[in-house]
Write a structure and sequence with these properties.
homodimer; 248 residues; mainly alpha; 12 helices; 74% helix; elongated
């Protein structure tokens, strides 16, 4: 990144710095860091890499992030977490399964674009992992759960419903990691449909023993469309279930 | 632990040491460490605590574990992982849901008895977490997946089935952590039934798009009993599904 005229560049750069506000320069460094952390595990990213990618000097990076790489990593994570939480925003209209499908399209696009950072963070044991980074990840999970429960219309969710939603979120994370490990196979749309079907299966399994979930499942089913994910799932699952006559 | 006659005890202890083989003494230290790590986060357990609990001296603990607390923690984890993997051993006879229920009874008893260590390990960010401890956790997950796939009769499991099993294992871990956080509520049997139902829901949701899973689900259903977990689940879920006539 520093090849070319070594004497001319510093002046040009200082000129560039002056045109950026503190907030802009900081945002630029974070953007460069996110791009690097997205495609490389944290241990393989140096402050020099971030400086080079942002066309900045190492001292300048330290001026903005006195805590060095760890502080920059956390700032990048904070910013990524905000982006991810924006993926979860979905209007509360139409069949629930369609809302979930659209949200998962955005989520999987995010996973796709932040692969290395996403894996490092969720697989644990990363050198950059701290109680602060874990708190950010937990916040994202809580936000996701809050959105799902609101879409379901659960203002005071009981334990079974909360556990179901929390475990589904964990399942979605695990499936995304597997998807990245498997070279992004199957196609994103297939993984999305499976995650939506998985949610429905888990929702119905929870409904059988929990009256609150039963009520919510009942009203969720009313809004579903025949050719939507739930209609397709039910019409394909029933023949399999009917074969087990001795259980019905 | 060192109260009482300070002059007499060392002799008595040396006497006790002599009666133990190296392997026995090592096992005793690990057992003491497991008990401490089970009920306290790793950062709150000191080598002195382990020494005291085992009725041993700090130098003796160092003789067996020159790497100190981290080495002892890893040895305790290794031993716990072996115990946990024994929980997964289940004869391959009878309905699959009953086999899974029995296995989950043993698994939840293990979680119950190793609460603090289990949480610290799986929640991440523990001071004792390293690539080696993560490798042990991954090994346990792989063993669990191997058992499930063998019971299902999947000799060459395809991607959908592997992802389903892997995500269910993650869901079981997440539900167990929630259960510990919630003061071990609901009762263990209720959590076990939910996990089994959740498996069935997820299995059927996967079967609708994957021919291999469909075949395995079909033969699994044949072996189920009317009053077993699957029979109960299906008879309770169907009325809910039938209400959504427009989808069928």
């Amino acid at each position: 990144m520093t090849s070319g005229s070594e004497t001319a560049q510093p002046t040009a750069r200082r000129g560039a710095y002056r045109r950026l506000s503190v907030a802009e320069r900081r945002a630029e460094l974070i953007t460069a860091a996110i791009a690097l952390f997205a495609h490389n595990p944290p241990e393989d990213v140096s402050l020099d890499d971030v400086a080079a990618a942002a066309g900045a000097s190492r001292p300048l990076v330290y001026r903005y992030f006195p805590g060095g790489k760890q502080e920059l990593y956390e700032a990048a994570l904070r910013d990524s977490a905000d982006q991810l939480q924006e993926c979860f925003v979905e209007p509360e209209t139409g069949p629930l399964s369609e809302r979930l499908s659209r949200t998962m399209d955005r989520y999987l696009a995010f996973v796709d674009g932040h692969a290395a950072g996403f894996s490092a963070l969720l697989q644990g044991g990363s050198v950059a992992e701290t109680s602060r980074t874990n708190a950010i990840v937990d916040e994202v999970r809580r936000t996701a759960a809050g959105h799902i429960l609101r879409h379901l219309g659960a203002t005071e969710p009981g334990r079974p419903l909360r556990t179901m939603v929390r475990t589904w979120i964990t399942a979605a994370e695990a499936a995304s990691l597997t998807w990245l490990d498997d070279g992004r196979q199957p196609p994103k749309e297939e993984l999305r449909d499976w995650l939506v079907h998985h949610f429905v299966g888990s929702f119905i399994a929870t409904a059988v023993n929990d009256p609150q979930t039963t009520e919510l499942a009942r009203s969720a089913l009313v809004s579903e469309e025949r050719d939507g994910p739930v209609g397709i799932l039910l019409r394909q699952a029933l023949p399999l279930v009917y074969e087990a006559e001795h259980l019905l």
